Each structure stands twice: as C-alpha cells, then as structure tokens.
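Same chain as my last thread, 384 residues:
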Amino acid sequence: GNISISVEKEGEDVLIQVKDSGVGISQEEQKQIFDRFYQVDSREMNLGSGIGLAFTKKLVELHHGSIHVESEKERGTVFTVRIPISDDSYKLEELLENQLVIEHTIEPSPDIDGLETDTSMMSPAEEPARESLLIVDDNQEIVDYLHHYFGKQYDIKIAFNGKEALNLLENETFDLIISDVMMPEIDGIQLSKKIKQNITTCHIPIILLTAKSETAHQIKGLEAGADDYVAKPFSIALLDAKVQNILKSRKRLKEYFSSTKEIIPENIAFNALDEEFLRQAIDIIEKHIGDSDFSVDKFSREIGMSRSNLYLKLKAITGESATDFVKRIRFNKATELLETRQYTMAQVAYMCGFNSPSYFSTAFKQYYGCMPTEYLERKETGLN
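reply #2:
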C-alpha cells in the first residue's frame, strides 16, 4: 500500500497528517489504540509493543497539541497531529510548576581579605550546609530546567556564557560546574581549559553538555579538562547520577584526608596543579615551622594567593581552612620530634611555632585528645 505524510500551517497551529491505505482500524479499537500496551488483535498485522502510540500522544500533549485518528476497515487510516506554534503556547512556568523566574544578576561574594576574623573560625551552623553548583548555558529554558531540578538539593548560581562564569569564579568557588559547549563569548571547551589551567579553580569538576555526541567531540572536551560529558538530549536522571558520583568521590577524598594525620599530596590532589599546590603549601609552612608569628596572611602572600582564595582552595581540596592546615603541619612535625626523644617538651613547642609549652600542651590535647606525654605512652604500648 501507500503511506503519505503532509505538513501544513493552519492559523497558529501546524497540522501533521500521516495517511496509509492499509487494513484500517475498527471504531471499537480506535478508542483504545492510544492506551499504553494496547495491541490490535489482528493476524494480518505485525504486532508492536503497544507503546509507540501512547508515547506519541504524550509527546504531542507536552507540546500542548492533540492527536486523533480517522479510519475505516479496509479503507486505510489517517492520524492527524495538531500542534500550536506560537510562543505564547509554551509557558515554561507551567512545566516547572510555577518556578520563580531566575533573575539574570551576578552578585559577587564579599572578599574576606583584610578582615580580622578568619573565615576558618566560622561555626558549622554559619557555613553553607549544601553543596553549590554553577550552571552555564545560553539557553534560558535549559538553565531554568536545570535550576528547577538541582535547586532542590544544591545551592545554584547561573551564568549564560563562559565569560560570565569566569567573572563569577573570580569571587567564589563551586563544588561542581555544569556547562553547555556551544555558547557565545567563551564556549564550554575554552571555559574548561581556563578553569583547569588556573590554580585557584583547577580543583572544580566540570560536566559538559553538548548536542555534538560524536566520540571526537567528547575526546576534545575531556582533553580540555572536563571531568565528564553528557550528550543532548540528555537524561536528567543520568546527569544527576554523574553529579552525585563526582561529588561523592571528592567527599571521600576529604574524609580520607581528615582520617589520617599524614599528608600525601598525590593521594588527595585532583590533578597535577593541585598536587604541586599542596607540595608548595607544605614547603612554605615547614620553612616557617618555628615562627610563632607565621599567619594566614603571610602564608597567602608567600604562596601568591589572596587570603580568601587560599581558604577556598584548601577547603575544596582538604576540607580544612588555612588555619587548620597550618596546625596539621605543626602537629605532624611536633609528633615526629617527640618520638625521637631527643628534645624536651618545651623545645618541641618552640621548634614548632607555639608561644609557650603550656599552650602547646593545651592545643595538642584538643587536636589529639590526649596530652603529649600520654601520646608517647600510647605509642610505646602500641595503642596509637
């Protein structure tokens, strides 16, 4: 037989008709063919799964359209799809369940440089409880869709191209970035390169979204430093799973770092730049290990970063503030010296930058849960 397809505009609608000269469908069966898993009982036809027409009807309705069938037995069938084409027919707010409109504003976080109070002194209640995502895409509807989905679980910031994203990253950091590839100003590939080549941002994982699903394009994105790649049209569940897997792996590394007193950069760094950064940070602290006046300000100047960027960088890699990171190095050195039995408690205290032996003992107990003497006793008995 014959099958014909026609498309025409009718007012503010488009009509799509698919007509055949087949065996036709009875009036009774026409009432059920759009039901999921319904199959026409006919030996003359190759039966399907009963999903196709139900799925088609759902897609048409998502486009605020309608589909109906006209058929007579032995005289063929006509399916007619009517879909509105005016912009007014597609209200994103309906799809997103009255989601609040995202204002296109960029508000940089206040810089903590020069403040007397160290950010590391913030109580857990004051620190943001949720992980943060940066969504970068020039398509407003995709941005709104991703914001609506991930906003329930994460703190979200928006940028509409790579340039805006880089401007945001000058003042704050994020736990993960989801970025489109094809964008004006700076595209996703260039954005990935700039982020991964910058010491202050190279630790941030990036997932690229793109309509270019060919392997060569995916390789190009991964070579630019992207941590993962999702092709459009994408499954939001798959994207969510990838986001969760990346964030969980980063969290596990921080937990590993917090559970061990030893600092091995290659075990906790996400890339070569971060590994070199940690080595440099450790070298700087060890160089000033006996300097009780060594502060976070001096630390940030020597490593060549602002105080706020140093805090954000260490927090992202290790989960610790700059102050806590310095303490860790000092206490590691102190235990090494104590275990040699070559120095008195007072000597160890001053050699590791503590103002007095009493303060050293108090701080040591807060850090290890026991006094220095008790720590050595446990070492001898094998309890540590």
